[in-house]
């Protein structure tokens, strides 16, 4: 009921931003000396920079839309001391629509591309690497070895670990000037992207087997992330790297460095975007629902064989192209589905990117990952998987799961958090800050509307975060 109320409320809020096409005559003083030509008027679009400058692509020619399709609306402001000047907003609107159509086609094109294809389209080199974890999972990593220029001789390695339900695509969906993966490559880094969606293989298990999905972010930290880091360092012939994690990507970094302290020596610095460890201050109705029914929900999902949560589905990507594109009346449903999880952030939401986002997200995860977070919400602690009293005694020698020893995370850590993040609350970040022993800074994003996903797709992410 709360979720439905929230979505209805946001729909009502957004309905006030409806776009109406009209033309009118307005009488103003002679301003021919400074009125710009029509061709020089900037077109506002959802992928422009924050300063309002338009995309580098030139506006396309007007579409062949009949005037009768545009509701006529006109009025005149009269004043005997002023000279009448007619401004044809219909013409401006039609040219803007043609420009939007051109942008929309590019977005829909990008929504059909894989990560290597998307990177190549933007003119960057992309490599695909495969590693095998100690427990048999075959993981795929993507690497952008350099930017569009190769004048940097020694390029430090930076490792990007995405969040739950995500993939390497999340760092690359925005245009190159705004996507962190490209920004780092152009800045002289050797960029390695961890993966989820491209890693559903195992040496002996099938994704159709429930045993394949018997892992949480604890296992991702101990096996997946360590294996990928070791491979990247070995391949690049370097001893240390920079680690950038988002959401669950931060969780696994804390688990990894606390459980296997030697990895502190392999990380020069750790940058935690929307850090997640403690989860007592979350506002997402979706996560709250999962937490309240964690015990029963886990049993039901196991009984029906739902071991994967929100798996990647090609059909969902196709539906996203139709329902989430610009000018679609159902686009608001797409934005609100993201807001219901991450927090309301209409200011930062680049709706034009929605078809690409829906093409790559959700990328699927093990149901156990979400249930482990739900356990943390209910217990108020950052600790290992709870098997129940008897199971805990068997696994840990105690009837309660052990807490992760955050004081063992000794690598320099930088925390980035925001007020409108429904998954990484300020109180939880403050508690994390107190327990980590080498925090070099905790930075509150200078926008009260910035949410959990804006670190990846937010219009102002480069200015506010990167």
UniProtKB/TrEMBL annotation:
<feature type="domain" description="Partial AB-hydrolase lipase">
    <location>
        <begin position="115"/>
        <end position="174"/>
    </location>
</feature>
<dbReference type="InterPro" id="IPR029058">
    <property type="entry name" value="AB_hydrolase_fold"/>
</dbReference>
<dbReference type="Pfam" id="PF04083">
    <property type="entry name" value="Abhydro_lipase"/>
</dbReference>
<dbReference type="InterPro" id="IPR006693">
    <property type="entry name" value="AB_hydrolase_lipase"/>
</dbReference>
<keyword id="KW-0732">Signal</keyword>
<keyword id="KW-0325">Glycoprotein</keyword>
<keyword id="KW-0443">Lipid metabolism</keyword>
<feature type="signal peptide">
    <location>
        <begin position="1"/>
        <end position="18"/>
    </location>
</feature>
<keyword id="KW-0378">Hydrolase</keyword>
<comment type="similarity">
    <text>Belongs to the AB hydrolase superfamily. Lipase family.</text>
</comment>
<keyword id="KW-0442">Lipid degradation</keyword>
<dbReference type="GO" id="GO:0016042">
    <property type="term" value="P:lipid catabolic process"/>
</dbReference>
<protein>
    <recommendedName>
        <fullName>Partial AB-hydrolase lipase domain-containing protein</fullName>
    </recommendedName>
</protein>
<dbReference type="GO" id="GO:0016787">
    <property type="term" value="F:hydrolase activity"/>
</dbReference>
